[in-house]
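Weekly structure sync, notes
Attendees: PL (lead), two postdocs, one rotation student
Agenda item 3: pending single-chain targets
PL asked that the sequence for the first pending target be pasted directly into the notes so everyone works from the same version. It is reproduced below exactly as submitted, 1021 residues in total.
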Amino acid sequence: MTSLRAERDESVKAKLPPTCLRLTGHAHAAGAKADFTFTVAPHEAWEQVGVWVHLEDDANVDRLGFQVSDHHGEAFIFTKPVTSTGWQWVEFDLTTATLKHAYPQTKGNRKIDGSIKRLSVVWFARQAGKTYLTIDAVTGGVRTKQSTNLLGMQALGNDTLPRHHGLQKSLLLTNRSSKPITVDLSHHLQRDSIYYDYPAPHAVHGSDHALDGISRTIAYGQAIAHDTLTDGIGWSKADANARKEERLEVTQLVELSRERKITHLAFTGDDANWTWNCEMTSSRDGKTYRPIEGLGAIDLHRKWGRVDVNVPQPFVARYLKLRYWKDGQPAPRMRMPSALSIYDGLEDETFEPPALSHTITSGRQQVRIPARSFTVVTLKDQQPLETGRYLLTLIAEQNGRKQMIYAPVYVQLAEVAQIDASSRFGMNTSNIKLASMIRQLGVGWVRFENMKWPHCAPEPGRFAFDGSVSPWNVPHDEIFKRYHDLGMTTLPYLYQVPVFESTHPPSAKRGRRLVYPPKDNAKYGEFTFQVAARYGSKKHPPSVLLTDDKVSGLGYMNTFELWNEANLNNPKWGHFVGTLGQYFEMYKVGALGVKRADPTARVASTGWAGISLDFIDRMRTYRYADGTTPLDYTDVLSVHYYTGRSTPELNTLNTNIDRSGKSKGGKPFEDQLQRLVDWRDQYRPGMRIWMTETGYDANGGWGVGERLKAAWVPRVSMVCLAAGIDKVMLFRERGSGNTRFAASGVLRNDNSHDPSWFTFGTMLRQLRGVDVPADQFDLGNTNVRVYAWQTDQETILTAWAVKGTDMLKLKLGRCTVTDAFGHTRTINVDGNLPLSEMPLYIRNIPNQNVIHPLIDQARKREKQRVIDRDRQAKKRVVLFDFGSTEDVGAVHVGTHRPAVAVTKNNVWSTSLGYGFTPGVALRDENGRWQREPLEQDTTRINAETAFQFTLPPGKYQLQIKAALTSNQAALHVTGIHSETSLNVTKEKPLAELIITTTGGPIRIQPNRPIGLRWIAAIEND
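Predicted structure, written out during the meeting:
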């Protein structure tokens, strides 16, 4: 069957509002099969699958049902003949149905083993031609005998309401018992400006108290992870790899907030292929651990999803120890569960709404649910709701047992009436179908991801922008006109090389051939000219245009970014498989092409991955044959930075470059921003700096959850703007998957609003008119972040707690305060304004006498910082980076100080002033890809070789970074006032010493073979 499609069906009244799903296809013959796969959360022992199906007379469906695959991949099919039209419930009992293979399979035991890993709705056509059906409420689950919770509750539908709309929410109630039941249902709606995300108590087991605790994971005697079991993030997990053939064992320690009588436990599995046996012991004091009855060997292997662990006898403990092993066999690796839930029953549960604010609206009703069926209840209220986030608490009571769930409700932001290129906010985009929604968000810029050379060059010497270039068929004209008509300005990055122009080696994989440098840089210049000529502001004669339609001067764009992340050059996955020198040579030609097409257009650099001056400064130091530099051709410096799973204010690691996530001790993000702005002011005043990619994944390996994502997206934006970055563009428009960068969208995969939609949208509305950096207040509390922003009319304060909660102890008077989700109120800011991790925006401040001194203090601190910076910049600095002339590092002493590159062939001479003696060194070694160029490469020397260099007379701090193969070595330093030996080890490879020199050569010689990474001599005060 071909032409398979799935789309909303508005013509049929849904069984579960608001809409149902129509599945269509074209059968080429009678008996053709349609197969639509649904993502399911794995469950340990599904016994039933079902679906509502709506059929019409011309549906052309003969048989329909399900196809399932168990955790071994063995696939089975269950179908029934079609006998009627309209809605019908189709259900299969997997425990009693005849098991039939979906297709011939040589392996398997003809049993459904463990969890269901794949579920498809399938049908067979009665004859050739169009075939279709409508479905709703695909279900799967266990029988009543295996479930102690007989009532299921699930909130349905979109979380977002229009402004000034009353509450409207659908609730699915499922009766898992064999008799009809009547449920007393109540709802309570509260405003939720802090994004309350503590889960409601389990209906049977109570609250999960693991979330109040802490955890550690220990392997080979060392802690390798913290809090992965107790952080409430379902995809964070610890893992460990075995050393050779050792019998790997891993221990996890859990400490609860207090002693509890534990009645039930549950694991949440993740990569269950590499999860093995678990033994659990308990302790009341954290010192003496005792076995727990019945929990001596829990089998977690291939147990995905939630695995409940029955506790035969409740036990009292505050500490738990979990030991994982592979039943006496060598385990190559272990992946621990992502969560452990710990319950102590219902005795202390109240099943009441959390104490957030007063209840805005509430209601109560009785609902009758048929046996083994479900009912959809629609909650409605006419009271208009203002913009913001709300928490809906739903409580169901049946036969004395209560059950409670929470559901978020958002009310849409006010429309931004006018946007233009002066906007400081943008969004990375690729899907024109989402253009109207992105316009609703209010960004003024879109950074378009698919203005790629191969997408518009069908053959050498010809361009087409109408979507005719296969296999991508990107309709550039349509896309850019759409953005332009909506008022948004497009920033394209001109990226990749057609296969017929690429220098790729024959061995390069097909997808990698497009990221090699072009054979002729002039051809890249022609590409940039054609794009800028068509979409820039200047008309051109047809003779210079290489398109069939000869169109130019459309005026859709004024800035063109040349390439994307050219400093990520790993051949396996990097964006430019070449040297920075090769990129710069291509860049100049491309920049000239843009300017030739439109002299008023701006050229933006590649979106550098990271903001380190180690590679950005190469734009200043790289010299073309005519003496110019890449910086001379740059109007906008484009950079990217991702803080990963650390707060933007405390981050020291750009996770787009260091993908291990294990590096520590890097430069703080805010310091790097300040250095970047200082560098711009020193070498290219007036050049704009745009953060064209930043953001957070909600889930997956780098996920922070939707709550922290919502908090950090506006905060990282404000950290950038406060430092002097001119524009911030979020990555990206849509995505909620579980792979890297796939969950970073302000829209989820189903186009519903991610919470960050509201927090990013609120920020850009509140900071409209702000075009200068902010003043940061020092309130004596590093956990409280306050910025003062200036517009032509007023001072705006933004405030939040970096972690957890805190107080804003400023008496500002009666102010207008807007929360992170756009709800505005007028309150008295009296010195005890509660702060959370969600930013607040404070305007119309009457007590200006409170904030003016703080602004003055902030500006005095900045003035003193500049004085100290300039004093440091006058110091003498000599820096040598060993092993390569390509990856050359630097230090920051007042300003950026690039190193002198040294390789094994640099032999000492007085004219050179540095080098090895008595001859060349052993070899240069290129290290693995690292985030610090100084740490990248090494020159190996033996005990007979020394490195020496000259310094002007004076007092210096000498630093020597070694790379050892042995456990330790001694470095003999001569040529200083008092010669000495410095010890270095594998654990402490950096040696430091204050020296005094009279101007003669300083000599450094090891007592055994070592590697030299870098040497620095910094003038001492």
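Discussion points:
- Residues 659-663 have pLDDT under 50 and may be disordered.
- The longest strand covers residues 305-325.
Action: rotation student to compare against the earlier draft before next sync.
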